[in-house]
Amino acid sequence: MDPILNRLAEAVEAGKVDKNSPYPPQMKGEDGADELAKQALDGGVSPSDVLTKALVPAMDRVGQKFSENKIFVPQMLMSAKAMSAAMGHLKPFFQSGDVKAMGTFIIGTVKGDLHDIGKNLVAMMVEGGGWTIVDLGVDVNEDTFNRAIDENPDAVVGLSALLTTTMANMEEIVRKIKEVHPGTTILVGGAPLNDEFRLKIGADFYSPDPRGAVEYLKEHAA
Ligand code: B1M
Q1: What digits encode the pLDDT tens for the residues 90-132?
Q2: Are the C-beta atoms of 138 and 111 separated by less than 8 Å?
Q3: How far, in Å, is the centroid of ligand 1 from the Cα of 115?
Q4: What distance in Å separates the CA atoms of residue 187 and residue 174, rounded to the nearest whole number?
Q5: What is the pLDDT of residue 84?
Q6: Considering only CA atoms, which residue is closest to atom 14 of ligand 1?
Q7: Is the shortest distance between the CB of 116 and ligand 1 below 6 Å?
Q8: CB-ligand 1 contact for 121 (6 Å cutoff)
Q9: Sheet of 186-189, strands arranged across
Q10: Does ligand 1 come within 6 angstroms of the Cβ of 108?
């Protein structure tokens, strides 16, 4: 594999965003994901290889370490930020159709709920998995989800809820999405949820963390 892809993967895994970023201290002054992704593309590495051989495996390892409590939210956020910096260089290729996205993932925190840190992590990790993200933000109602599905008919939908009170809203949103768009696949997540609740509300998959969502989507797209 091209050594620049190894360096890019290491930068993403370590959360090194760009040359000027002070984190992590041991990589001070070194190129980060921003510069390395640009160098890889300028040097003739295909956008597809940058995505599938560097960014996706790096974020996969990050997700794995997070699931095993080997790293925590701040490190994961830095890796997600580094990944986003690299993705910025790939976006034009995705938009021009040179790289085929895995699909579209619509995500939002359900109505009544303003927590978005976990939702943003999931969105960034899924984006790292090669999906186009439609992020509807927080406090999102069923009509907004249904409109987004109208605009992206084959999209998979992700709902996040952090409050026990908004779990009921999640149930209502799942019901209304399934009424209007019966074929839509819906993933749910958030600290108070579990698979029993997912089954009760008729969603298709529950993941306790971003990695599970990425893995499920990988299978779904295949
Ligand atoms: Co609030 N809050 N909060 N809060 N808050 C909690 C959730 C709470 C547990 C704190 C507590 O009491 N111990 C509690 C909920 C209790 C309950 O319902 N069981 C609580 C409460 C009560 C409230 C308010 C009602 C407080 C008040 O005003 N009286 C209020 C509600 C506002 C509202 O939403 N309407 C409120 C407000 C806030 C802030 C705005 C101050 C802030 C949110 C800032 C923001 O998000 N931009 C906040 C915060 C920061 C928290 C805590 C401290 C941290 C949440 C967080 O970001 N965790 C939280 C206590 C805690 O968790 N220790 C708490 C880190 C994040 C990475 O984890 O979001 O769980 P998490 O996401 C995980 C997984 O759940 C999963 O992946 C992520 C990464 O592993 N995941 C998915 C999430 N979504 C997923 C979707 C998927 C798959 C996986 O597929 C689609």
Answers
A1: 878 866 666 777 899 999 999 999 998 889 889 988 887 889 9
A2: no
A3: 5
A4: 10
A5: 86
A6: 163
A7: yes
A8: yes
A9: 132-135, 104-109, 156-160, 186-189, 205-206
A10: no
- Residue 105 · residue 131 · CB < 8 Å: yes
**Predicted confidence (pLDDT) per residue in 18-51, tens digit:** 999 999 999 999 999 999 999 999 999 998 899 8
Directed axis angle between helix 117-128 and helix 56-67, to 10°? 140
pLDDT at 51: 86
Can you read off the two tokens belonging to residue 186? 């819906």
Distance CA 215, CA 29 (A): 34
pLDDT of residue 198 exceeding 90: yes
- 8-state DSSP, 206: E
Give me the phi and psi of 191, to 5 degrees please.
-50, -40
Provide CB contacts within 8 A for 28, sequence distance 6+: 22
What per-residue confidence (pLDDT) applies to 97? 62
Q: Rounded to 5 degrees, what are φ and ψ at 61?
A: -65, -35
Ligand 1 centroid from CA 162, angstroms: 5
pTM: 0.84
C-beta of 157 in contact with ligand 1 (< 6 A): no
Identify whether the C-beta of residue 115 lies closer than 8 Å to the C-beta of residue 138: yes
Query: CB–CB of 14/24 below 8 Å?
Result: yes
